Amino acid sequence: MLHLRDDDATDELVKVTGVFKNLPQNAHLKFDVLFSYNSLYTRGNWAIRRYKEGWRRKDMYTFIQLRPGTDPEKIAAGFPAIVDKYKPELKNSQQKEVLGLQSIQDIHLNSDLAEEAESNGNGTIVFFIGLIGVFVLVIAWINYINLSTARALTRAKEVGVRKVIGAFRHQLVSQFLTEAFLINILALAIAYGLVIVSLQYFNTISGLSLDKSYLYQPWFLVLIIMLWIVGSLLSGFYPAWVLSSFKPIAVLKGKLQTSAGESWVRKGLVVFQFAISAILIITVMVVYKQMQLVQAKNLGYNKDNIIHFANEGNIGANQQTFITELKRIPGVVNATNMEGDMLGNHSGGGGINWPGKTERIEFAGLYVDFVLREIIGPVLRNE
């Protein structure tokens, strides 16, 4: 049994019924303690109305588990009838409640809704980072193709001698493809090892928390194998075809000549490689300039020497007294309070409508004290 004290400084005796292990870093919902709704309902009618009967709480999330094969669109089609049944007064006041479904797998990277459980990622950024990785791989494969075909003259006599003693073309193709598979798997093994060794240092520099366990997941290992097979075929087939096409008599007489088509292919690959490199360099420069703009952008207020912290314990019930004491501290110029913070992390909201308006306009509200109004006012008026 433990004593729990909430924001209203109310003590309550609770029973611990279980302990869970640490949540993984990629968990959508992160929490320290889980409480049942029944424990909230014991705190009075206000809590019951807020959590059990209220429809407009933004701090509540509803999760629905569908049976396999169920069409989410058909489920969502029944939501308007539910709203009409339990909120009939909305039509009389010309208001509207809209409910919708969202796949839990789409929330972190693709959700643009406010008041998510945590800050979302950006699916577009992840896509472009993956695209850059593909471009780098393509450049590496093109390098291998160009180097292999450039070494054709040095291996021409080898091919001529093998053909003279009876080697067939498919045997030569198999040999050169095998070489491509071996080189690709060696490069892949080195890259895989470097990622494992440097991941911790990368997390320290970037501030991320990438987990090594993902590198050992079955789906990731299958992806690596598929990448090895596809990369080996793409980078090895053309050099193998070119090398195995040499005529033994011309090779042994030193009269080897490459066709115009082969020359155009090599030139085209080089141009394509440099084009991708130029695009990547330009993209990096654009992103760098954007980040410089973000860091130097005028936010409308001077963020230096401003300290923000949450009101905890008895501070919330005695805010004015607390602020008065803060102002008495030497070095403090002024103090004020607000709901949330100046970056927009708050949960206040409201709405407006007027006669003849068919839908209620919802907006997010930010509740601030007098001192903060004097700061934000000129910013909102673009003065």
Question: Can you lay out the helices and strands and say which pair or pack?
Answer:
Blueprint: E1 2-5, E2 11-14, H1 37-41, H2 45-53, H3 72-77, H4 79-86, H5 89-92, H6 107-110, H7 123-150, H8 152-164, H9 169-206, H10 218-244, H11 248-252, H12 260-296, H13 319-327, E3 349-352, E4 361-364, H14 370-380
Antiparallel strand pairs: 1-2, 3-4
Helix pairs in contact: 7-10, 7-12, 8-10, 9-10
For the record, the count of structural domains works out to 3
Please state the structural category.
mainly alpha
What percentage of the residues does DSSP assign to strands (E)?
under 5%
Q: What order do the SSEs take from the amino end to the carboxyl end, as H and E?
A: EEHHHHHHHHHHHHHEEH
Unreliable spans are 379-383
Helix content: 40-55%
> What is the spatial order of strands in the main beta sheet?
1-2
> What does the average pLDDT come to?
76
Query: For the report, how would you describe the main beta sheet?
Result: 2 strands, antiparallel
Query: Termini distance?
Result: 57 Å
Give the overall form. Answer: elongated
Total number of helices? 14
How many distinct beta strands? 4
Rg value: 33 Å
Walk me through what this model shows.
By secondary structure, this protein is mainly α. The protein has three domains: 109 residues, no CATH class; 174 residues, no CATH class; 68 residues, no CATH class. 53% of the residues lie in helices and 4% in strands. It has a two-stranded antiparallel ribbon. A two-stranded antiparallel ribbon has the order 3-4. The C terminus is likely disordered.
